[in-house]
Structures are given as C-alpha cells and as structure tokens.
Amino acid sequence: MKKFNIYFLISFLIIFSSCIPNDVDMQEPETVEVSENAIQVLENLDIPNGFNFETERDVILTIIDATPFVKYEVFAYSSDYDSEAENISEALKSLLYAGKPYNGIVNHVLSLSSVYDKVYISRKDGLEYSYEIIDVLNNKIDFTITASKTANKTARAYKVSSTGCVECTENVFINGDFEDGPALPRSYIQPQESFVDGWSTTATDNRIELWKSGFLGVPALNGRYFAELNATQNSALYQRICTSPGAEISWSVWHRGRAGTDTAVVRIGENLATATIETTMTTGNTAWVKYSGTYTVPFGQDDTYFIFEAVNTAGSISVGNFIDNVVITETLAGDCAEVTNKMFYPNEFTNATIAFEDLWPYSGDYDFNDLVISYNIKTILNAENNVTQVDYNYIVESIGAGYKNGFGLELEGVSPSAISSVTGSNLTEGIITNNANGTEQAQPNAVIIFFDNAHLNVGLPNTISIVFENPITTAALGNAPFNPFLIANMNRLKEVHLPNKPTTYYPTTVSIEEGPTVRDSDGNFKTPEGFPWAMNINGKYKAPKEKVIITEAYNFFANWATSGGTSYPDWYQNKRGYRNNANLKN
C-alpha cells in the first residue's frame, strides 16, 4: 500500500471536513465497456519519456521599439499556407497579442500551437502600417526596429497610475509659441520638422517655416517667432498628444493672413485622416485674430491630434496662413484611458479544448469525453503591459459520464489576496466554500471553481472574469492554460489534472492500493506507460462517442503520441482523412 501526505491529510480532514459531504467517499470505478483488447493496444503505445501530450509550446515574445505611439499586433502564422492571400487572411484570424511597448519594450510568454512555426507582426505608427513574418527560433520571437524620426521628437507627457490608467501630466502640448527651435536669422528659416520641438508637418518635404518677429513688417503675437502653414506647399502643422478619455480640452490659436485674406481650419481627432473640423479661420493680413473652442475626448482615445491646416491663401501655394501662441489645456479631467493591450489564448477567434477521463487513478475507456470544455482566454493588460483582468470564456460541450463532475483552475504562485473579484461561477452542490472575492477558501494559491456539477452547465456559454487587486506581471500570472482540473463526482478531495501538473492544496492522492487496476500510483496523472487522464488541445476538438477509444476517432492520434508530438501536430483538426466522423459526437 502506497500512501501520500497521510499526516497532512489527517490534519486537513479535521479542519475541512465541514466542506465535504458526509456521503461522498473515494469513488469505485465505473464499469468500462470498451474492449479490453482496444485499451491494451492503446496503453501499449510506445510513448516517449517526458511527453505530456501537449499541442503547444511556450515562446518568448520580445519587441524592442522606442517609437512613440507605435502599436503592434502579433498573429500566429504557418509556413504551410498555400498562397499570399491565404497567408494574410488566415493570419489575421489568429491574434495572440495586441498593444503598445512600454518604455520601448514588449516582453511576454505566449502559448503557441505546435502547428505554427512563424508569427506575423503588424506595426502601426500613426497611419503607416507595416508587417513582417518572423520565424520562431529556439522558442523565441525577437523583433527589433530602429526608432523612426518621431522617436527623436518630444513624446507625449504621461504617467501610469497604480491602477494602470494613463494620466497626462500638465504640459500635454509644447512649443505653442514656436520659441523652441533653431536660432533664426533676421528673416525666416525652413528647417526639417525634427528641429522644431513638438511639431510635425504633412508637407512631403517635412519642412516647417518659421518667421522672426518684424520680418516684412509682421510682428509675432508672442515672443520672437511664429510659423507659416504654407512653407513650400499647402500643408498642415500638428501635434499628437496624450489626452485622457472623457476630458474636456480648451484650445486657442492666433491666426493671420500674409498677402491678404487667408483661410485655415482647426481639426481635432484620433488621427490625421479622421480628425474633424472644429473651426474655420479666415483672417486678413492687418492683425492677429484669436480662435478658440473646446473638445471632449471620446472614450477609448488616449492620443489626440491637434491639426492646423491651410485651405487657401491670397498669394501663391507656398505663401500664407501664419499661426502663433497655440494653447491647449485640459479643463476637465477625464476617466481612465481604455485598456488597449490584450493577450489571447489560443488566439482571438479560436477556442482551445480540455478533455478529461474522470476515473483516475483507474483505467478509463479512453474516449476523452467525460468532460469536454471549449474555451478562450483573454488577458487584459494596462499601459505597462501588466495584467489587470483575465476573462475565461467557456462552454461545456460534452458530458460522457454519469458523475457530477466539477471544474476549476489554479493560478500557481498568485495569492488569493491578489484577486479583487471573481464573477461567473456556478456553484450549486454545497461542496465549495469561497472567500468574499470568489476564490476558494484555505488555498495558498488563487483557485477558482467554475462549477461543481457539469450536468447543470452543458451547452451554456459562460464567462469567468478574474479582476486583480493591483496589476501583476504576466510572468507572475503564469502561462495559459494555467492549472485546470476536474473535481470527480462531487468529491472535493479528488482532482484530475493535466500530466505532471500539481494538485491544489486540497489533497488528491489519499491512499491508493497498488494493484492491477491502479494506473497512477505515483500521482503524476500519467499511467506507467505515460498515458494521461486529461489533455489540453490548442484548437477545436470534437469528442468521440461514448466508449469509442480516441484512436478509433482520430486516425493520427497514435502517430502523434508515439512521435512525442512531432508527427501530425494537427491530429485533432478537421482535415481530410484525419477524423472518423462516424465515431464522433454530433
């Protein structure tokens, strides 16, 4: 007889016996009707040592890019795509990460399906898009880009609060009087935009024209210098600045014609293309005229463009539309900026599947349909790329057992006190006791029980939302799918885990008689031959019919298992010849 943690168990049962129904004991195995020969053939497969029946691998994503405001999307990508069109259309369905670098760096661990050997990286800098296909080498994705010219300009001024909100500092708009730039002679100068702090131009030659006060009899409104919108062509000057969604912004600008009456517009918005006209300025050449207004920043918009654009002039296309003393101030504080950084598992538009056999530690029927859950995990990140919330969207797709099984998840290394709230659990059987925040009591790690009776949840889409008290790093959270487990037949002491995953603080292995029917005497959730009781599949899996062994439903499962995952890594997909549909549930 092999015993595990018996002294701990005695103490645990004394303390927590009130949590376990009196009529629930370790269950005897159900009657297995599958051919013993079929099971023997399966269990005699030569499984390589160390193979854990994983359909994915962890890869380290590192992006180095100091360009302000740049945004990235990272998609899973396969070299097996047949055409350029298929490459793009398929890649855009498999988003893994979307967000901005923090301090010029993105660094996360992603769970990447074994069917993918590359990633498609999309980069957005303002209205400019670019993409690159990167090989996954040694389980690493490295992407480095030299900062563009905008990185050398003054970046938006902001700080990140303890809750992950973007909070703009006071000087959100700089150099509105054009005093910060190259020294001017007695007349004017047309420097490259990179020499004029804060300002950019839409001119194709990237030149900004600055005048010295008094040149040709035109005085600056304020200070020594002012700007002309029409430098060498009809163009606009603009700044892209940090704004708080919901904030009210007051703006003002002084405008003057050059050779006569000039017209320009003030446009404000999320980008150069969609910014709307706030006012039209039509002014003669005898005096400066002030134009002003207010703008409310829409929710979800944490960058705002303030654009001053020439429309027409009294002179030639390169003459006219002076501006000076531009002032932008936030008069009403906004709310927290909408979070835009996200990670997805397995990707944005695909569900993974976890399938259990519930007779552990005894042999089951290996149809892997006792509890089948299809799910997708969205991890929400703040501006610092730290985790604020995890949404676990799932549906119980199959129940092939008479047991009333439950399902839960452990976040290894995350304290229950790190969780602010858990919503979405469906606990009906009285076997689970939770803390006020929705985590299970008496657990050193955060444990979330989704449901305690699968029969009451089959076919019902649900979302478990885990909100953190304070943002935590993705390294502290751990990698999806984390540590999921089945609770067998309302017995909280009996958990079934993925191979080589630990149990929660509740003892799983109580006391196991060694004998021919016991298949996991060492408690690693693998048979002596290396076969599991649970599999996590990085994609859509259709459960075999009751008492149909998995190798009779999926033609290349055995090839995959005996190769240690290198052959047919896509064995579960609905490709020609891969499935025996007659042996699968509808």
Would you write up a description of this structure?
The protein has helices at residues 6-16, 36-43, 84-91, 474-477, 557-562; strands at residues 2-3, 56-64, 71-77, 95-99, 105-113, 118-125, 128-135, 140-144, 158-160, 166-168, 188-189, 200-201, 209-212, 225-228, 236-242, 248-256, 262-269, 276-283, 289-296, 303-312, 322-332, 341-345, 352-356, 371-381, 387-398, 406-411, 419-423, 446-451, 462-472, 483-487, 495-497, 511-512, 534-537. The chain is mostly beta strands and 586 residues long. It has 3 domains: 2-53 and 342-583, no CATH class; 56-150, Immunoglobulin-like (Sandwich); 168-332, Galactose-binding domain-like (Jelly Rolls, Sandwich). Strands 3, 4, 6, 7, 22, 23, 24, 25, 27, 29 and 33 form an 11-stranded antiparallel beta sheet that branches. A 6-stranded antiparallel beta sheet has the order 11-13-14-21-16-19, with no helix packed on it. Strands 12-15-20-17-18 form a 5-stranded antiparallel beta sheet, with no helix packed on it.
Low-confidence stretches: 1-32, 147-157
Task: Please give the largest β-sheet.
Answer: 11 strands, antiparallel
Mean pLDDT: 85
Q: What amount of the residues lies in strands?
A: 35-45%
The total strand number stands at 33
Q: Which word captures the global form?
A: elongated
Q: Structural class, from helix and strand content?
A: mainly beta
Counted by DSSP, the helix tally is 5
The overall number of domains is 3
| Gap between N and C termini | 43 Å
- Name the helicity range: under 10%
In terms of quaternary structure, the protein is single chain
Radius of gyration: 31 Å
